[in-house]
Amino acid sequence: MITNYTEVCIFCYQPKQDVHHLVFGRANRRLADEDDLTVPVCRECHDLLHKHDKISKVIGQLAYERNKCAEGYSVDAARESFRLRYGKSYL
């Protein structure tokens, strides 16, 4: 999970009802679990994220790249790593 605040929705602070995979789809959901690209959400925000899915994927990619940069990757190498792992870049 990309936040330490796991009991409330990351967007509206209502009680958490679900966990959202920031990068989703068949294969990507498993990868997002492995990369901890999940956030706590309420049902309403979860539904909105799926209606406007690009913002979710952008946030997921930014979190992934931040983690890779913390491991010593350059920004360009982190972006390429995301593209290779998830099949495309959202940035």
Give a written overview of the molecule.
There is one protein chain. The protein has helices at 26-34, 43-51, 53-70, 75-86; strands at residues 18-21, 38-41. It has 91 residues and is mainly α. It has one domain (18-86). The longest helix is centred in the C-terminal third of the chain and has 18 residues, at 53-70. The mean pLDDT is 94.
In short:
With 91 residues, this protein is mainly alpha-helical.
Keywords:
4 helices; 53% helix; 91 residues; two-stranded antiparallel ribbon; single chain
Secondary-structure element pattern, one letter each: EHEHHH
Low-confidence stretches: none
Helical content band: 40-55%
Write down the domain tally: 1
Q: How would you state the average pLDDT, rounded?
A: 94
Question: What is the rounded Rg?
Answer: 13 Å
- Order of strands in the sheet with most strands: 1-2
Relative strand content: 5-15%
What are the SSEs and their pairings?
Layout (H helix, E strand, L loop, with lengths): L17 E4 L4 H9 L3 E4 L1 H9 L1 H18 L4 H12 L5
Antiparallel strand pairs: 1-2
Helix pairs in contact: 2-3, 3-4
